[in-house]
Write a structure and sequence with these properties.
Blueprint lengths: L25 H5 L6 H6 L38 H10 L4 H4 L2 H7 L4 H8 L3 H19 L4 H5 L6 H6 L5 H14 L3 H13 L17 H13 L7 H13 L3 H16 L5 H5 L6 E3 L4 H4 L3 E8 L5 H5 L4 E4 L4 E4 L6 E5 L2 H4 L5 E6 L18 E6 L11 E6 L2 E6 H6 L7 E8 L16
Helix pairs in contact: 11-12, 12-13, 13-14
Length: 444
């Protein structure tokens, strides 16, 4: 029996870290072990004692490249460039089958002029074929009725090209209307424009009576708007309303057009004398560089229409220039200013002038819809004339919680006796096409 007293400590002066527990004493242990330690320690360890753990098979991370499916029809995929040019030259197949050959030739270095020289297909026609084939493919992907799609197998590129700007759902509805009414390219173009433009016309008169889900109603509303560009009554106005009634699909749209048509027949023609008695509010479009060429200018504070109406009253009242250099002096600071040529309506504006910026020109009560577009305008207002006096004058007032330009007669009906100011001028932003001025008869 071993005891702690039988194990004497051993010191090794040569090794300062020597410990008796690090000494191997096989003679002492061997008498108590059932096997020989020397043999056991020298026996090599076999890896077969513990069965190996099966390693999970690693997934193959490398995936071979698979090119996207070719847009070309199967019968054209094996053709070289010369073969594809021959197909285009002889128009072999349907138009939507050989149309994808054109962009494939672009990828190989051909240009629209070179393809036109070889095949006789003009560059404009090349673009029409490519776009129309893409429109047709989107209709196929959206599961459009095959009977409708077969209508465009022959000569359908011109029709499908016109609806390129519509969404997938709009295209399907437009295709239905085109097929049912046998529209030509011009009719398809008008339909696409009407469908695209309809959601933007929510502020127009009668918009709520037309249904957006019906292509015919969108087209009818376009003719309905165009009718209001003509005098009442007039042959052009009546013809446009009859056209709107012919294409309308919903009952509400038909009733709206009928009401306008019957009302126009019973209405009285405006007399030139009445127009002559109206208050003229000029609507001008600025020209590029007009301020720089002007001999005298007017500086006005600017307020945004969507801001608090109190800011219009708080804007500086006077802005004058003086001294040898014409230094502009104002009574207090302001964030936004505009410089305008000193037109005649502005020349008499001594104090209280302010320009109110509207982002939508449809707030102006002019009679024609020709300018009902989302273009920015400046409404120059004289704040020194706040009393609503004349029925035919135009005033800037708060109506239904928002700023609006309205006639004095309309404000009097709403019992509005004082407004923010009298409108003296409407300024439109400069653009390249300037042949679009409003006449005096265009105001309501």
């Amino acid at each position: 029996m071993l005891s702690s007293t039988s194990l004497k400590p051993i010191t090794n002066p040569k090794n300062p870290f020597f410990s008796p527990f690090l000494i191997q004493t096989p003679s002492l242990l061997s008498s108590h072990l059932p096997f020989s330690p020397s043999k056991t320690l020298l026996k090599p360890i076999s890896a077969t004692l513990i069965p190996p753990t099966p390693q999970p098979q690693q997934q193959q991370l490398y995936q071979p490249f698979r090119p996207p499916p070719s847009p070309l029809p199967p019968k054209f995929r094996s053709l070289d460039a010369e073969g594809r040019l021959d197909v285009l030259t002889n128009r072999l197949g349907l138009w939507f089958e050989y149309a994808p050959l054109i962009p494939s030739l672009y990828q190989e270095g051909f240009t629209p002029p070179s393809i036109e020289e070889i095949t006789g297909i003009a560059g404009v026609e090349q673009n029409r074929l490519i776009v129309a084939s893409q429109v047709r493919e989107s209709l196929v992907q959206s599961n459009t009725d095959e009977n409708l799609m077969s209508f465009f197998d022959t000569g359908g590129a011109e029709l499908l090209y016109e609806i390129r700007l519509l969404s997938s759902s709009q295209r399907a509805e437009a295709v239905r209307y085109i097929v049912e009414n046998r529209l030509d390219a011009k009719g398809a173009q008008d339909l696409a424009r009407a469908m695209k433009d309809f959601p933007r016309r929510q502020m127009d008169k009668g918009w709520g009576s037309f249904e957006y889900m019906f292509s015919g109603d969108c087209l009818s509303f376009m003719y309905y708007r165009q009718s209001r560009e003509h005098r009442n009554p007039s042959e052009q106005r009546t013809a446009a309303l009859k056209q709107a009634l012919e294409v309308a699909e919903s009952e509400s749209a038909k009733n709206e057009v009928l009401q306008e048509l019957e009302g126009g027949r019973d209405g009285k023609e405006e007399k030139e004398d009445d127009l002559g008695q109206r208050v003229r509010v000029p609507v001008v479009r600025m020209q590029f560089g007009e301020v720089a060429d002007a001999t005298s200018v007017v500086v006005l504070p600017v307020c945004k229409a969507d801001e608090d109406a109190r800011l219009i009253l708080e804007a500086p009242l006077e802005c004058a220039s003086g001294g040898d250099f014409g230094v502009v002096e104002v009574e207090k600071g302001w964030k936004r200013w505009v410089v305008l040529p000193c037109w005649e309506p502005l020349a008499g504006l001594r104090s209280g002038g302010v320009a109110v910026a509207f982002s939508d020109a449809r707030v102006i009560p002019w009679k024609t819809n020709r300018w009902y577009m989302e273009e920015a305008i400046l409404v120059v207002t004289d704040r020194s004339r706040k009393e609503v006096e004349l029925d035919d004058a135009f005033y800037l007032a708060m109506v239904d919680g928002g700023l609006k330009v309205d006639r004095g007669s309309a404000l009097k009906e709403m019992d509005v006796k004082e407004c923010l100011g009298t409108v003296v001028l409407v300024v439109r932003a400069p653009k390249e096409d300037t042949d679009d001025q409003l006449s005096d008869e265009d105001w309501e």
